[in-house]
Design goal:
alpha/beta, Rossmann fold, 2 domains, six-stranded parallel β-sheet, 9 helices, about 10% strand
Length: about 240
Amino acid sequence: MADPAGGVERLRTVRAVLFDFDGTLVQQRVDFARMRRRAIEVLQGHGVDTTAIEGLHVLEMVERARRSLAQRDAARAQALADDARRTIEAVECEAAEEARAIAGVPALLRDLRARGVRVGIVTRNCRVAVERVLARQVLAYDVLLTRDDVQHVKPDPRHLGEALRLLGVAGEASAMCGDHPMDVAAGKGVGALTVGVLPEGSDPAPMAAAAPDLIVPSVAALRDPLGLDGAQDEEG
C-alpha cells in the first residue's frame, strides 16, 4: 500500500466515500475497443469526420461530434447522439450480464454504512447496465449517480460534487476511490482525499502520474485504513 501523502491517517476521519463502479467495486469485461469502433462507425455514418476526435474518450468523442453537428442541424445532432447512446449501452449491458462484485467489496460497503460513513457510487456507465449488475450483486450505498443522472460526467468534478450534495457532505470531508486517473482528478477537483486502486499486474505509471493520496491493490485493502473490523463477506 503506497501512502505518499499520509492518506491512511486522513481516511479514518472522512464522513463519506465515493466509489467508481467498473474495476473498483465490480469486475466486468467491457470491450472498450469494440465500443470505440462501433461509436466511430455511428459518427461516420452521420457524416462526421472523426479524424480529429478519435483520441478522446468515447463519451467525449460523441459529445464533441454532437455539438459540432448541432451548429448546423439540431435534429441530425440529436439523432447522432441517440444512435451512439444505443450503441454504447449495448456493449455496456452485454458486459453487465457477467459482472461480479470484487472480493471484499460488499462487506466493506456494508460496514462503512454501519459505521455511519455515507457511501456514493459515481460512474460513467449507463444506469440500465449498473442496475442490471446491482440486481444480482448486493452492494450497500446511499447515492448512485450514473452518466444518465448528471449533466457533467467525471473527470468533471461536478459529477462528484452532485453526489456529495445529495449526501450532505463537504468535499474536504470525503474520499474518492477509483481505478482510473480520471477518478483521482475528479476527486482532487472537489477537495476529496483520493485513493487510487491499482490491481496486481496493472501498469503503475498512469496512476502514479495522477498522484493520489493513497494507492491500494483493491477496495478490500481499505478495511484497515478505514478502521473497519470483522470478517469479509464470503461471497466477496
